[in-house]
């Protein structure tokens, strides 16, 4: 095909976390909550390591930039690519996830206990007598405490307490990782001396990316280099343009977080932030001057979204939606809302998926189709 003949079948995927400088138009946004107080930081083009990676990539390949707000699943997709399509993780690589997983477990239980204590008097969320001592133990430790057998026993007992379960049922109100229940159910395995994280453990580990991570892989005889670029988690940096010769964009939205607030300011709705950011990304003035850029829009975490709808604990009322609380109806509504922001009519294709389990090859197949013969 003309696409693979022209570009020598070499593709580079740049995965950029939500707090990395990429979009210069944020500098013109005011009155947008958390965006007013962020710092600019250093532009990527001044970093020799990133500049070297970008320069090498642009020699042969097509750059596909992956964007999205925090907690949308960008790192999950990167790790799935590495596990399933790349070189995978050897034992040493897997061992590096032990500490972050332990910290995930402790952090999650500390959040649950703290909110249980806040709600105990007002809502009558009382711990069982034997768990009150465990709650004080959890409250007193640091997030980076070693996950000992003693701590694991306390966490396991607390997790099974009806009061903690009631807080967990309302987890969308708190900043609790949505994979906490998975790790709580595996607490006994996590504290074994010979514990090595499985692929599923690694995918569910919430670890904020720092530095640069690169993965080489081949899909359908096409060579890819996936680059996961991290950044500071203490601030929401303004995104400025730094990557040259971008040929395609993948944008992630967390479908299930329509009733949750951003980690950064606990004021801005996460789905609203995703729509705002999408509006800025897809309407960048630079795209008017470049060759046509195709977009893949991914609504992630469909499994958690369906679960919320089925439980009926939180109505979907995003952007004034007053239709039925049904998956298909909301799905069509969101496609319409996000598509309407594409004022430049750039080519776009939409996927609804669970990044933990659904086939990710469809994304690369879509780009291959576009550059080969276009999208209908």
Automatic annotation (TrEMBL):
<feature type="binding site">
    <location>
        <begin position="228"/>
        <end position="232"/>
    </location>
    <ligand>
        <name>GTP</name>
    </ligand>
</feature>
<keyword id="KW-0460">Magnesium</keyword>
<dbReference type="InterPro" id="IPR027417">
    <property type="entry name" value="P-loop_NTPase"/>
</dbReference>
<dbReference type="GO" id="GO:0007188">
    <property type="term" value="P:adenylate cyclase-modulating G protein-coupled receptor signaling pathway"/>
</dbReference>
<feature type="binding site">
    <location>
        <position position="355"/>
    </location>
    <ligand>
        <name>GTP</name>
    </ligand>
</feature>
<feature type="binding site">
    <location>
        <position position="75"/>
    </location>
    <ligand>
        <name>Mg(2+)</name>
    </ligand>
</feature>
<feature type="binding site">
    <location>
        <begin position="203"/>
        <end position="209"/>
    </location>
    <ligand>
        <name>GTP</name>
    </ligand>
</feature>
<protein>
    <submittedName>
        <fullName>Guanine nucleotide-binding protein alpha-1 subunit</fullName>
    </submittedName>
</protein>
<keyword id="KW-0479">Metal-binding</keyword>
<keyword id="KW-0807">Transducer</keyword>
<dbReference type="GO" id="GO:0005525">
    <property type="term" value="F:GTP binding"/>
</dbReference>
<feature type="binding site">
    <location>
        <begin position="300"/>
        <end position="303"/>
    </location>
    <ligand>
        <name>GTP</name>
    </ligand>
</feature>
<keyword id="KW-0547">Nucleotide-binding</keyword>
<feature type="binding site">
    <location>
        <begin position="71"/>
        <end position="76"/>
    </location>
    <ligand>
        <name>GTP</name>
    </ligand>
</feature>
<dbReference type="Pfam" id="PF00503">
    <property type="entry name" value="G-alpha"/>
</dbReference>
<feature type="binding site">
    <location>
        <position position="209"/>
    </location>
    <ligand>
        <name>Mg(2+)</name>
    </ligand>
</feature>
<dbReference type="GO" id="GO:0031683">
    <property type="term" value="F:G-protein beta/gamma-subunit complex binding"/>
</dbReference>
<dbReference type="GO" id="GO:0001664">
    <property type="term" value="F:G protein-coupled receptor binding"/>
</dbReference>
<dbReference type="GO" id="GO:0005834">
    <property type="term" value="C:heterotrimeric G-protein complex"/>
</dbReference>
<dbReference type="InterPro" id="IPR001019">
    <property type="entry name" value="Gprotein_alpha_su"/>
</dbReference>
<dbReference type="GO" id="GO:0005737">
    <property type="term" value="C:cytoplasm"/>
</dbReference>
<dbReference type="GO" id="GO:0003924">
    <property type="term" value="F:GTPase activity"/>
</dbReference>
<keyword id="KW-0342">GTP-binding</keyword>
<dbReference type="GO" id="GO:0046872">
    <property type="term" value="F:metal ion binding"/>
</dbReference>
<dbReference type="InterPro" id="IPR011025">
    <property type="entry name" value="GproteinA_insert"/>
</dbReference>
